[in-house]
């Protein structure tokens, strides 16, 4: 099967807009001065040369690590025409109404294929082209494109449909199938603000509950804002076979979808969305939310979480929303969910043990009505799990008040085995930071801890902070002896750092 890459074609913007912004500006004198009334002034040439220096491209390895995708970035300073575009400030986020996206999105100006043994930027790069080339597209909703690596040509993946990327964009289900969040067909014009309010703004506190809230920017202010948020955030889920398996098919009705995530084996979908009632006091991340497990065709299987409006969380660090949080697929399993639940109601000041519990639930057990299984407990706020296999995972917990951080090793396949403490330290102590474990790509396209074959050893990369500056390093860390062997460290006068593991495909079982 031919390799493909995915491109948001409407994000391939050239830098002509940046040039146009400065084309009419007066030429600076040797000291950067401009004639009175000539508009924007420019700095001296020495400074201009630094500011306008073209940025280095970012890189992405192909799954087989033989090719690089070279993504050219726009100028470091965006043109004034870009940052002055109108935006809607709704429910704590800023929306570009023309594109149905977040405002000031990142983008690339060109894409090219390069052999992995080339120096980048490469003169032998094969640029990806599509109809019309990578020129400035007309402003409007984003479209999803697919590019063939062999021919370096791109084509639309969703004929006649545009993406809504305010919350999510698309998810690959398997090698050829995509589920995308699309602007609903036949969508009407956006709600208009009436010349005068239609009624009072009513907020209910009949329960006389006392709570403290932080102040947030860009909140909803009235029902018109709520209607606009619902209009621009709503999408319908569309499934398409990019290998030519027919036209796009709607698999779910219009909702405020925030995430659509396919299981590693491609047979299940984890779908999240927001619901009313909205709030004028907190951003959309605390609105009522629903998380469900579906089959890949959109068939409902089970509700994983139904979270109510969270307006009354404690105004403290480490406070969290009650109920399941961090619901995700395990990256080392074909189809198993994991999540965390607070046992203190989300209040870090309550003295409880455990404070958090990690649960797992396989998709097959969920379909059969089985209960979730407890995996681990923490006495501090759990920060998540880094997966490797049934024998190894890393459990993270921390406490903001003491800056304390602990990392444990656990065995997901042997849940009766007690966790083993790996690190117990202050996360502010950067000089003694052991680094973070590197990951490798699995056959399912997920990433797990890069464990050395046949051994309980991990590759750890860190910034190498020291009194003389950062010296990034790569260590081989033995989980049994807790000893680190230095494999490499950056040395002056260069500042280098580690990248991806190139052997993680040929050695599928490890490194």
Automatic annotation (TrEMBL):
Region (Disordered) residue spans: 18-46, 188-210
Keyword Hydrolase tagged: yes
Entry superkingdom: Eukaryota
Keyword annotations: Hydrolase
Keyword Hydrolase recorded: yes
Any one GO MF annotation of this record: serine-type endopeptidase activity
PANTHER family associated with the record: GLUTAMYL ENDOPEPTIDASE, CHLOROPLASTIC-RELATED (PTHR42776:SF28), SERINE PEPTIDASE S9 FAMILY MEMBER (PTHR42776)
Protein name listed in UniProt: Uncharacterized protein
